[in-house]
Every structure is written in structure tokens, then in C-alpha cells.
Amino acid sequence: MSSLNEDILFLIFEELQEDSKSLFSCLMVNRLWCETVVPILWRNPWCYSNINYANKTYLFFIIACYLLDDIKEFITEQEIKLPSGSNQSLSFDYFSFCRSINVDTINNIISIGSTLGHNQFFMQQKFYFFFMRKCPELKYFDMKSIKHQIFYFPEAMIRLESLCELKCNTSIDSSYFYGLSQFCQYIQRLIIINTDTKSNHGIVRLIEVQKNLKHFEWEDYFHEELFMIDNLYDKIFLALEKKAESLNYLKIFFLYTINYEHILLQKILPKFYKLKILIIESFLHFDDEQLEKLKMQVYHELEILDIGCNMLNLISSIIKNSGGCLKKILFKPYDVIDNEVGSFKENSLKFIREIYKNCPSIEYLTIIFPPSEVHFAEFEKLLKICQNLKSLLLISYNVDEIETEERLENGEILLEILIRSAPSNLKEIRFSDDDLRFSLENFEEFLEKWKGRHALSIFTIDSYYITEDYTKLINKYKSDGVIKDFKYFRHIDSLSYCV
Fold it and tell me: Bigger pLDDT: 25 or 384?
């Protein structure tokens, strides 16, 4: 392994670019490995969630080495504490590999040198000055809490022209976005955290000038007392509407879904006809007129649908009008029950049928239905047709309360269906503790018959399966390679998929 040439090593390390622990280990093998890993680690060195940047003195050391000659007098006057060895030359020109800025992370690292705000501000300013000189191109910029107008630095125009991803919040002054909009016109991913209820016209302008916007996320994140009923989203989404030709990813979370937001969604959603991923995390409840209009949504290229309205008839209509490309259908199944009073049986049956008629490529599926004979039969038909299915979140829910014996019987029926008809790709099952349960005997028989297939990951919120007998059985089939993973969660939300 250590004798592989540089090109092969680079390809291997590229696959590990989000795994900082593995990459740090590779640094220690030999010089060639180190020289190959460092550019990958430093492409986006601020992104690793497992690192506490506020105590990473070695990162402050690297920044200080870049700044030392320019701010030596200031450091002396302000008594800023530098790491030992700061006068030594660096082994690599780290900034020349970097393609990203994360303002919060950089602020945390620089705070190691001083707790005084004006010292930190000065060093941050110098960091951005040197960074703009050294960084060949800027691809990723998370500018939440930024205080420095970096577009005024030398070389900033050239660096910002290459920006692909921007993450920001609406509390940043509009003038900052006006400045960015002069240079950043080819952003592909724009993620906005809405922390203010006042319209930010600078963000509107930034959206308007984009020429290849593909990915857009909007998340409300503010205190309830700040909320005002205002046409907060109008200008933002009207500007976004003009990017429909390029937009293929749309994620929206409205904190307060008053009627205005429903009308806005009803108005803008049909415009984004090229969407491949649609995620609406808000809990939405539409009136009959709005619902009928939304049922006409047509997304021929849609691959992932994650929608917070949790109305099976609406989701079924979107599935029916899709182009057969859907790979993931996700929602919170328990929220469906409250919305489907009196029509749950009929709507869940229609939902199953629309999936096997229109989703031949489905891989990840959330599904909920009552444990009736006809529903089980249609579910088995779905399994036989949808051969790409990899993961299943299944909730069996009966509107009427049932006895333990019936739950065990339902569990036995489900296991028999899975053995007979589960596609060969299926390797993950998630289920709850409602109207089906697997007896120890039936569960063991199922696992025995599963041998020879993909090792199965099983996730549940039913504490029944962490009792001694089940734990012993699960561990046995883990050792045999039949079960890959087993997890018990306390809350149903933990079972739900994340996109």
C-alpha cells in the first residue's frame, strides 16, 4: 500500500476527503503520503464536524506564521500570545491549497491568540488579506457572522468570481450582498438562514444576478416574538422563480406557515419544472382549492420528494405526475394520521399503487398503511415490482386498537412477505411498535431464511427488541453476517430519513 504511486494515492484519499481521522492517519505514513494528503485536507480545512476548532493551536500556528511579518509590531504591543515556533517556516504553503472560507470557524481559531475583540478583528482582517492573495480560487464561502467586507481586498474580484457555494443569513446588511453581487454571479449552491423578519434586498439582488443557480435552501430561524405578518418572502421567491431553468434542488423550511405562505408555495412551485430534489420541511395544511391546484404539480425529472404536508393524496398525485425517476419518497408517517381522518385506508391504498405504477427506480421509501389483507397484498406487489428498493421505513397503523395477538399475526404476515418478495437490493428496514410485532420464533425463522442476501440493518423504536432474548438472537445473527446493524431509538423522528 505504501508503495502506490502518487496518482493512485490521490484517488484513494479523495474518497476519504470527509473523513478527517483517516486522512490525519495517512499523514504519518511517509513523505509521499503526507504530500498527497495535505492538499486534500486543506481544500476545505474548516468543514470537519468532529474537530473543536477553538482549541486547535496548530491551526492558529499556521495562520500566525502567515501573518507574523506583517503584524509583528501589533502583536508585541497588544501582547498577543503566539504558539512556540511561530518564527519557523511552514512545510507547505497551506493557503495555496485552500478553496473555502468559514467565518465562524476562522474566528474560533483566531480567538486562541487573544480574547480581546479588537485584537481578533485586526487579525481576522489580516487573515482575509493574505488568504485572498494566496488562495488560487474560492469555491465555498460560509459567511454567517462576517464583519469584514472582503470584496474590497486586492485580488478579491478574481477569487469571488469562482465561488460555487455560499451560505449566509439575512441579518447581514444588504450592502454586503450588493458588494458580492458585483463579482459572484456563478453561484451554484445558495443556502440562506432567515434570522430576520425584515426583507433583505441585498439577497434579492444576489439571487437576481445568478446565471447558473442549481441548488437553493431557505430556512426560517428566528424567535417567535420577532415574527410579523409581512410579505417577507415575496421578493426572494419572485427572484428565485426566474432561475427555474437551472434550478434542480429546492429546500424550504417556513417556521410559521400562515395562509400567505401556502399561497406563495402554490404560486411558485409549478414554476420549478426542472427540480430533481424537492424538500418542504414545514408542516403545511392546504385548503381544498389550494390542494387541487398542487395536485397538478408536474416534475418529470424529480428524484427525491420530501414533503412536510404529510397528506397521502397530495403526495400520491405528485408521484403520479412525476416522470418515473423518483428514488426517494420521504415524509413523517405519524403526521399522516391526523390529516387522513376518515380516508386513511383509501388514501394509503392509492399511495401504494401509485408507487408501484410510477416509481420503478425507488430506492428509499417511507410507507404507512393499515394491516389489512388488501393492503398487505398491494404492498407485496410493490416489493415485486420495485426491484431497486434499498431501504424501507414501514409503519403499519390500524385506526382501531388491536390486541397483542393480532400484532404478532401482522408481524408474521409481514416477515413472510419480505422473505417471498423482498427485492435483492433491500438492506435496511425501519419500523415502529404500532400494529405489528415479530415473535421470537418468527423473527429467528425470518433471519435464518435471509441468509445469503445483503446483510440487513434493522432500526426500531420498539423496546420489545432490546430485551434479553431478542438481544441474544440479534447478536447471534450479527456474528453470522445476516444482520449488519441493529439500532433502537427512543423517538419516532430518529427513524425518519435525512436527505
Answer: 384
**Interhelix angle 404-421/440-450, nearest 10 degrees:** 10
Average pLDDT rounded to a whole number, residues 450-475: 93
* 18 is a domain residue: yes
CA atoms within 13 A on the CB side of 387: 2
Chain segment 293-326, per-residue pLDDT in tens: 666 777 889 999 998 766 788 888 889 888 899 9
7 belongs to a structural domain: yes
The whole-angstrom separation of Cα 422 and Cα 416 is 10
Q: Per-residue pLDDT tens for 225-262?
A: 555 545 667 788 889 999 999 999 999 887 765 555 55
pTM recorded for the entire structure = 0.85
Among 166, 221, 228, which Cα is nearest to 193's?
221
Give the residue from 334, 373, 366 showing the smallest Cα distance to 351.
Answer: 366
Assess contact for 181 and 213: CB atoms under 8 A.
Answer: no
74: buried, middle or exposed (CB in 10 Å: 19+, 13-18, 0-12)? middle
| Residue 37 belongs to some domain of the structure | yes
- The structural domain count of the chain equals 1
Whether 420 maps to a domain, the answer reads no
- Residue numbers of the domain that contains 30: 1-43
